[in-house]
Amino acid sequence: MSARDRLTTAGFRLGWRLTRALPEPLAVAATARLADTVAARGGPRVRQLRRNLARARPQATAAELDALVRDGLRSYARYWLDVFRLPSWSPERITGTVRARGAERVRATLGSGRGVVCFLGHLGNWDHAAAWATFDLAPVVTVAERLEPEAVYQEFLAFRRSLGMEVLPLGDPATFPTLLRRLRAGAFTALLADRDLSATGVPVDFLGERVSMAAGPATLAVATGAALVPVGVFHEIRDGERVLVVDFRPEVPVPAPAPGESTREHRRRAVATLTQRCADEIAAAVRAHPDEWHVLQPLVPAGPER
Q1: Does 89 reside within a domain?
Q2: Is 202 exposed, middle or buried (0-12, 13-18, 19+ CB in 10 A)?
Q3: Chunked in runs of 10, what are the mean pLDDT values of the chain (306 residues)?
Q4: Residue 110 lies in a domain
Q5: pTM to 2 decimal places
Q6: Secondary structure letter of residue 224 according to DSSP
Q7: Range(s) of the domain holding residue 84
């Protein structure tokens, strides 16, 4: 392991320990101050976040975008704080701080023996949502991007598995066949799909731009007959309490084959259609809760800064 990798790994481990050791109000205040400092300093990723948010809120003034970037970085910092502290949360806290919409439909689908594949964006706290689902809905099968250094990746695998998830590595040749088997057996699969990390994504219209999103969720639904369900994840304050909302949208149905269409042509068209429908749902969630969209990478083509 290189010196840089050792330093990165040590930093993550220190963050895990410190955020659990600090009283929660103090930790929350500290992460907010850190986020404000990052926003004030700017930098390439902050500017990229600003460009992304400008597409979610195209009518926003420069001052409104400044505030949105600050709030977005605070939300992103809070995501990491909650991730670091999640292993110390009780099952009662994990489930009691979530409000699920549309979960009855998902529960009924799973109860019938049919699998469900969820199409998620980088919104809210997807780790908290997955932990809630494992306790209150069904064990989660998911795929994780391989992080560098390897030790940090293994830390995240251990963390997510400790919450009851089955985590498969992105890019492993065995991952897709495993997902097919799990879904055919009626599993509940949740996949982050608003960023294409495979270079084999589906072109979609998203927030007024042409971008590429992961083909996996739609491909799995078409291949297995599993229900494809877009999911929005965001926070709300209700009665003074901060809660995570997991919004299961209605199932996106597979289109019927067109007259004379081959099986291969139908699958290609169905994957493109389903991915676009899911992209539309994620776009609506991003527009409604842009500060909770944690994408600091160039998901969409760079445009003029505002």
Answers
A1: yes
A2: buried
A3: 65 70 89 95 94 95 96 95 89 95 98 98 95 94 78 74 86 94 98 84 94 96 98 93 97 95 95 98 97 86 47
A4: yes
A5: 0.90
A6: H
A7: 3-292
